[in-house]
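Lab meeting prep.
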Amino acid sequence: MRRHARRHGGQSAQEREDKGARQRKIPAGAKPHACDQCDYRTTRSRLLKEHKRGHTGEKPFVCDQCEYKTCQLSNFARHKRVHTGEKPFLCDQCDYRGSRLSHLTRHKIVHTGERPFSCDQCDYRASLPHLLREHERGHTGEKPFSCDRCDYRACRAALLKEHAKVHTGEKPLACHLCDYRTNRARLLEEHRRVHTGERPFSCHLCDYTAGRLSNLTRHKAVHTDTRPFSCDQCDYRATRAALLKEHKKVHTGEKPFACDQCDYTTNRAPLLREHTRVHTGEKRFSCDACHFKTNRLAQLRSHTERHARESERKRKRAGQEPFACDRARSSNLTRHKGVLSTGASRSYTIGLTPEQPGHSSG
């Protein structure tokens, strides 16, 4: 056996194979090993053997730490790094380490800023082809990833993976300032702004600011009054497709969101979240004018309106005009603005003394 090994001079199997190919005078670029079940061809007999397992379903490489099986030794070697945590591919510009060369290649685009893949319907450009494909589904409306437990569909596999945690109840991300937990990093980041008071999203038409981009998007409908989504069973119109979808459950009677501690069911996920606080005792909504706290945003809004009415009465007693509009008067000016038609003149003053100029917004 030793003499046999010395005969090969310590060569690897691949080196011996390549040497044998040269001895057989196989032309460069030729692929002499062909699959008899498809058009696959290769230069190496070992690769052909691995390929044929794709037809037979044979998976001889089995992980001893999980249920993973594969037909290729290279896939098995990569999988092992999941358990060992090995990340042999290092970025030469930062501390990034990857378990696969392909991951490192993708990462390097962060440094170059290269975005070679462009959308033919808008100005979007992507660094990777799969990101462009995901973006294009926003134009086509395609949602190929579907939940097997409800009718949820997504344009991205990552979104479906996040959604699945709604059913399992898994919430691995926790706030370090309160008991809030979530299954999405974005939601945790938005929640933390409740504690910091940060409101980075601002309206360019008024002084409204929000801690969430979704809240700003909803707010903008106050100025435009655009409601492109209409119900086919009644006169209801909505600014967002999600609101229309929720509304339609009123007609079907569907209440897919159920409390796991009592018999409460509802047709809206936010209502279920509000309800669960009845059991936990959490009161995350607090008034910034007094010590009032509640577990429902609607109750906080009702409470703050009482402060506004009280302030209005005090100003009236002081001889001031609390709310003035060039078309009408209202105790809730923000709500009142929504009834003004698009393009209408909107000038108003809020709690101004007679010598202060009115605030005008168009």
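Slide two material, second protein:
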Amino acid sequence: MGTGVVVRQVLRYAVRNAFSPFHFRRWHFQPLCISCRLFCSSDIQTSVQSAQHSRELHPLSGKAATELSLHSLRDMGFTDIQAQQIWESVSAIRGSSAAKQAMSTLTVLFGLGLNPSSVLKLLQKCPEVYTIKDSQLQKRIGNLRKVGLVEGSLQRVVAHYPQILTVPVKTVKNVALFLREKCLFTSQQVTDILRDCPAIVHEDLAQVEYKFQYVYFRMGVKQTEMVKARLFRITLDEVRCRHCFLERRGLYQTPDKKGQTAIINPKLESIFKADQDTFLTEVAKASIEEYDVFQRLLAKEWQEEEQLYGNIEAESSDYEDEEEDEAEQSGRSGYIKRKKK
């Protein structure tokens, strides 16, 4: 009987534990939590896979700001035709490797305040700008500001003569220093020259100095009039030709030491700033045929002068060589005589 009581208590305990709420939650809710974790993991994996797939489909979506593409060009404000023109020009210069560099260049030009049409015209005039690093462009633009080109003037100079961006900073500084020290232009006059005649940065400074001295001494004109006339826009030959043409027609006279002339000379601005037709009709009072004949005759004179000057230089050089030979021979003979003694 005692054994039966013990058996009944054991069975009651087993049944009570089998249907307890704790075990029900443990055995029936645990699979639900596991399924939730599996469900969440599958969602994350699906999202990662979809993101990877998206990147594979759009490999340049994250590089639009740094690499050149038609889409990035349109985002910068270019039309479809303009974007295509830039893309083709970059590909023709350096190929696909130029894309990132060209994008940086465009960014600098837009930062300068130029609009898409101006940028396109600039690059069509001077495609070499594509090949310049953005850091170099910024330094060169900054140096142009230092020499006095303010906002407005700077943009006009760059748009009109973009080749100035291909010139190193040191060269521009040397030209400005040369104009101040050798030609005695003021700082403001140097700024005006660089603004009106930016191509001077590519000229031979010896030719620049000769042109300045010709106008200053031969024509008797001061620096202020040179700047107004935009003297450095025209070639040295054109300066000499127009001046000589007026002089031989009795329409121009070199001032004396007091700056006086027997006639009233035309202003330098009317001589050099005007185009050829205006110069002939309003200043020289001559026909184009007369000027053409005069140019050919003057060119022949210059050629003869150069030949004569070359012959004189050659004779002078031969004479100096003969003197050196005689000096050497006399020195040797004196040495021999002293040695014999």
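Talking points for slide two:
The two ends are 163 Å apart (CA to CA).
Residues 65-131 form one domain.
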